[in-house]
Specification:
12 helices, 40% helix, 2 domains, 13 strands, Rossmann fold, seven-stranded parallel sheet, six-stranded parallel sheet, alpha/beta
C-alpha cells in the first residue's frame, strides 16, 4: 500500500508557537503511513536546522519577494501546484494565514487534493486578510481550531477542534531548587501582542512592597525598547531579559509562577509547557486560553486585575501550587503531542475516504 502524500505548508520556520508545534507534529507523525513534505514560503529560518533533523523532505518557495506583483503571485501558485503534482501530494495542511490563502488557490488548479488549514490564532490580521480567508474557505476541506473559542466568520462552520500539544516527556515537574527571590517567568516572543511593557509597568508598582523578579525568555523586535525601559525604571534587579534559551524546562521548574498578559492568542504552547511543569499560571482570557485555564487550574485575569492576581499568588502560594498540580494533570491528559498527533492522523485518513 502506497503512503499518503502529506504536504505541511507553513508560513515560516521561525521561532513562533505554530512553527514549534509543526516541528513536534512532524516528529510524531507515523512515517510508515505518511510521506511527509514540509514547504515554507518565507525566509524566517530560525528552526530550519531542527526541521532538517526530522528526516522529511524540506523545500522553500519564497512568496513575499514578489508578492506585490500579480503575475509573480500566479507564478508562485503554479510552482506550488507543480510541486504537488511531482511529489504525489494527497493532502495539504496549511499553517497560518498566508499558507491558508495559498493552499486554497492551489485547490482551484488541483481539484482532487484535500486541503486542511490551521490558523493558529484568532487574530489573522486586518479586515482585508480576514475577507480573503473567508472568501476562499469553500476551497478548504477542513479547518482546525484549538477550541470553540476560536470560531470565526472566516473559518468553516464545521471546523474541527484539535488542541495544541506539547512534548510531555520534555516538559514535566522536576525536583530542583527554585530561584530566589519569588520568580515570575514569561516565555514569549518580544512582540507588542505579548504585552511585555505592561508587565514592566506592574513591576515598577510591585517593587515598592514585594521582593520578586521577572524573567523574560525570548527575543523579538521589542528587545531594545524593553531593555531601555528596564534601565529607565531602575528595574535591572527585578526584570531580566534572558533571550532565546534551550533550557526552558529547567527555567520553568525553578520559577514560581508563569504570567501571560497577551492581547490575543491562539493556544499558546508556553502555557501548556508551564502547566506540564506544575507551574501556577496567570493569563488574560484571550483566544483559547480559557480552554486550558479555569478556577481549578490557574488564574484568568483581565489587565485591570492582573496586579492583584500576582499579589494573590505571592501571598497564597500554597493555594497556587494546588492549581498548578491540577493544570499539570489536564495538560498531561489532553494536550500531550502524541494524543494530538493521533487526532491529526485520523483526520487526514478520514478526509481521503470522503
Amino acid at each position: 500500500m502506497s503512503k499518503i502524500g502529506l504536504l505541511q505548508l507553513t508560513s515560516s520556520f521561525g521561532l513562533g508557537g505554530a512553527e514549534k508545534f509543526l516541528l513536534d507534529l512532524t516528529n510524531n507523525l507515523d512515517k510508515e503511513i505518511f510521506d511527509i513534505h514540509i514547504l515554507t514560503i518565507t525566509e524566517h529560518n530560525d528552526l530550519y536546522p531542527e526541521y532538517l533533523k526530522t528526516g522529511v523532505k524540506i523545500s522553500k518557495i519564497n512568496y513575499f519577494k514578489n508578492a506585490n506583483k500579480l503575475n509573480k503571485l500566479k507564478q508562485f501558485i503554479n510552482n506550488l501546484s507543480d510541486y504537488i503534482k511531482k511529489n504525489d501530494i494527497d493532502i495539504i495542511h496549511s499553517h497560518m494565514y498566508v499558507a491558508m490563502f495559498a493552499s486554497a488557490l492551489v485547490k482551484k488548479i488541483n481539484t482532487n487534493i484535500k486541503v486542511v488549514a490551521t490558523p493558529h490564532t484568532i487574530n489573522i490580521g486586518p479586515p482585508h486578510i480576514q475577507a480573503a480567508i473567508a472568501a476562499t474557505k469553500h476551497l478548504r476541506d477542513q479547518d482546525i481550531i484549538f477550541s470553540n473559542h476560536m470560531k470565526s466568520f472566516w473559518l468553516k462552520k464545521d471546523s474541527k477542534v484539535i488542541p495544541n500539544g506539547i512534548d510531555t516527556q520534555r516538559f514535566f515537574k522536576k525536583d530542583c531548587k527554585r530561584y530566589t527571590p519569588f520568580t515570575f517567568v514569561y516565555v514569549a516572543r518580544l512582540d507588542s501582542m505579548k504585552n511585555h511593557h505592561f508587565l514592566i509597568e506592574l513591576a515598577l508598582k510591585l517593587k515598592r512592597k514585594y521582593n520578586f523578579q521577572m524573567l523574560f525568555v525570548g527575543n523579538g523586535p521589542l528587545y531594545p525598547d524593553l531593555k531601555k525601559k528596564i534601565e529607565e525604571y531602575d528595574l535591572k534587579k527585578h526584570c531580566k531579559l534572558l533571550g532565546e534559551r534551550d533550557d526552558i524546562p529547567d527555567i520553568l521548574n525553578r520559577s514560581h509562577c508563569f504570567v501571560m498578559p497577551s492581547k490575543w492568542e491562539g493556544m499558546p504552547l508556553s502555557i501548556l509547557e508551564a502547566g506540564a511543569c506544575e507551574l501556577p499560571v496567570i493569563a488574560t482570557p484571550v483566544g483559547s486560553i480559557p480552554a486550558i485555564i479555569d478556577v481549578n487550574t490557574g488564574y484568568l485575569s483581565n489587565q485591570n486585575k492582573f496586579e492583584d492576581t500576582m499579589i494573590e499568588v505571592m501571598e497564597n502560594y500554597d493555594q497556587a501550587m494546588i492549581k498548578g498540580k491540577n493544570l499539570s494533570k489536564r495538560v498531561q491528559h489532553l494536550f500531550n503531542i502524541k494524543r494530538v498527533t493521533k487526532e491529526h492522523e485520523k483526520l487526514y485518513i478520514n478526509l481521503l475516504k470522503k
